[in-house]
Design brief:
Layout: E1 3-7, E2 13-19, E3 24-28, H1 39-48, E4 53-57, H2 73-86, E5 94-98, H3 100-110, E6 117-121, H4 138-147, H5 151-162, H6 167-173, H7 179-184, H8 189-196, E7 217-224, H9 227-239, E8 243-251, H10 257-270
Parallel strand pairs: 3-4, 3-5, 5-6, 6-7, 7-8
Antiparallel strand pairs: 1-2, 2-4
Helix pairs in contact: 1-10, 2-3, 3-8, 4-5, 4-8
Length: 271
């Protein structure tokens, strides 16, 4: 299980862990998550390492990866491309993304990052009143809270506006030990918001959104997830002509390593 780093186009160091050998599977976390905070990626990788090179990396600004301001979404495309080139050695790659990490994967593919297949678990979309849209000034409020030295307020805004948690629940979370870890990655919440763009606006997805994606796409959602998250997955699957929608056993916004590994293995072998 070697750890390593790659250097992105702007000089930022991106840290990763890799398992196995073969064609790569690259795993991308969603908002606030990174290697040390999400053991599910490692558990899944260990189940796939017999056939594949599985790479899990810390997105910029999180965990052991660096960061170089100012942020624009293309920097994360370059981070992914550096992983594919320097670790995957240019072999046909499957890119898997959790939640807003799935939006990043879609945006990178649209931008021309060489990806053979995309697999997404509950990517972000809201095209109707199934859930409240993000506030129009969501990104600006996140950036302002971080700039003013109030990272906890940025996390709380994400929890209530994006993750749809009740304010009283979030107030209780702020008293827990894990909150400090969320504050540490608070600047990156706005990164995900920029990757999500207008897909959580409550309006239909723009016809030109992801129009250049021609590779196979697997869109998964947990059978027991929140209705709004399942609706978002269905909307994205319907929007992408090359996609397959796959409801899978899963509790809320995740699933288990054995279920995810089996789904990825089957998808890759069929495509």
């Amino acid at each position: 299980m070697p750890d390593g780093t790659v250097t992105s186009a702007d000089g930022t160091t991106i840290a990763y862990t890799a398992w196995g050998a073969g064609d790569p599977i690259v795993m991308i976390d969603g908002s606030t998550a990174y290697r040390a905070a999400n053991p599910l990626n490692q558990e899944t990788a260990e189940l796939l390492a017999d056939d594949f090179l599985v790479v899990n990396y810390d997105r910029r600004g999180r965990g052991e990866s660096g960061d170089t301001p100012p942020y624009v979404v293309e920097r994360e495309f370059e981070d992914l491309e550096a992983i594919l080139e320097q670790v995957g050695q240019g072999r046909p790659a499957t890119v898997f993304g959790w939640s807003s990490g799935g939006n990043l994967a879609l945006n990178a593919a649209q931008d021309g990052v060489p990806i053979a297949r995309l697999a997404l678990f509950e990517p972000n979309a809201a095209i109707d009143d199934t859930r409240p849209p993000l506030p129009d000034d969501y990104v600006e409020r996140l950036d302002a809270a971080v700039a003013a030295g109030r990272p906890g307020d940025a996390v709380a805004l994400f929890m209530t506006a994006a993750a749809m948690m009740p304010e009283e629940m979030v107030a209780g979370m702020r008293e827990q030990d894990f909150w400090a870890g969320l504050e540490a990655v608070a600047p990156t919440i706005a990164y995900d918001a920029r990757q999500v763009g207008d897909t959580l606006s409550g309006k239909p997805l723009r016809p030109e959104l992801w129009m250049r994606i021609a590779v196979p796409v697997l869109v998964m959602h947990g059978i027991d997830t929140w209705p709004a998250l399942a609706a978002g997955s269905r909307a994205i699957a319907a929007h992408l002509p090359t996609s397959t929608l796959a409801p899978v056993p899963g509790a809320e916004h995740s699933t288990t390593a054995d279920v995810l590994a089996a789904a990825l293995r089957s998808f890759i072998k069929e495509n």
